[in-house]
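My current task is to audit a protein record that another person submitted. Thanks in advance; the entry in question is below:
***
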Amino acid sequence: MYTTLLTDATLFDALLAIDQELAATAQAGGCRHCAGRLDHADYPRKPRGGPATLSAAYEKRASFCCDAEGCRTRLTPGSVRFLGRRVYLGRQRHRWRLSGLRTCSKDLETARS
């Protein structure tokens, strides 16, 4: 079940939509240091570990840079697509979370009995 879900392109489209919403929220908040306007300064990515049908949007990671003179602070919002600063897709992280949830629920059942 999980393998078909993780190779389905619609899952990756949903993750992209979530990332775009996170990026829009971060950009609307402005610079954390000087409250200046944030401009796009995206990082290029060559994602590894996804289906061959990934959209071209996966070749960029959203990031912002303050436009105020002298500040230029960067802000890279969280991502559900990428695993931290790496180019690997975050689906591995989601697998680990799922297996962790199963382990926790088994531990709780054992502790209750």
User: Anything to note?
Assistant: The CA atoms of residues 41 and 64 lie 5 Å apart. The chain has one domain: 2-112. Helices lie at 2-6, 9-29, 91-112. Residues 92-113 have pLDDT under 50 and may be disordered.
